[in-house]
Amino acid sequence: MAEQTAHLALPFLAPSQAQKHVTHNEALVRLDALVNIAVEGVGATSPPGSPAEGERHLVGTGATGAWAGEDGKLAISSDGAWWFATPAIGWVVFDRATDALLVLKTAGWTSV
Questions:
Q1: Across residues 54-79, what is the average pLDDT?
Q2: Sheet with 108-111: strands ordered across
Q3: DSSP string computed for 53-70
Q4: At 28, phi and psi to the nearest 5?
Q5: 82: enclosing H helix or E strand
Q6: Which long-range contacts (CB under 8 A, 24 or more apart) does 103-110 make?
Q7: 100-105 and 42-44 strand pairing
Q8: Angle 20-12-7 (CA atoms, 0-180°, nearest 5)?
Q9: Confidence (pTM)
Q10: Cα 22 to Cα 20: distance, rounded to the nearest angstrom
């Protein structure tokens, strides 16, 4: 059996797992970040200095700092650190900076 869900990579609880609440809480944080996605911007290559809890960005090409090696991913600020999700074809995000709705197609993020 897989250790996570197929689309959002939510962690499954294991039958003999201790501290199941940790895995459950991780799944809630991921759901909160990956459902109804509104990003602060698209294409930034370095993280903001003081991100708000839950702040999201679509990382640009050539990312540096805490975002190095995460080009094209969705960066989410959580508990003072960044975690990253890899968008899949068909994901839809709202870009607050440009007030635009975007969909990920084979050719990249496209305005709806």
A1: 97
A2: 38-39, 92-95, 100-105, 108-111
A3: TT-EEEE-TT--GGGTT-
A4: -65, -40
A5: strand 81-85
A6: 109/42, 109/58
A7: unpaired
A8: 145
A9: 0.84
A10: 5
Which residue bears the tokens 């709705």? Answer: 101
56-68 pLDDT tens trace: 999 999 999 999 9
Question: How many CA atoms are closer than 13 Å to the CA of 8, on its beta-carbon side?
Answer: 15
At 80, is the secondary structure helix, strand, or coil? Answer: coil
pLDDT in tens, 29-50: 888 888 999 999 999 999 999 9
Report whether 38 contacts 56 (CB < 8 A).
Answer: yes
Residue 16, token pair as written in the block: 């003999």
Question: How many angstroms separate the Cα of 36 from the Cα of each of 23, 30, 32, 51?
Answer: 22, 12, 8, 19
Long-range contact set of residues 104-112: C-beta below 8 Å, sequence gap at least 24: 109/42, 109/58
Quick check: helix, strand or coil at residue 32?
Answer: helix
Count of residues in the chain? 112
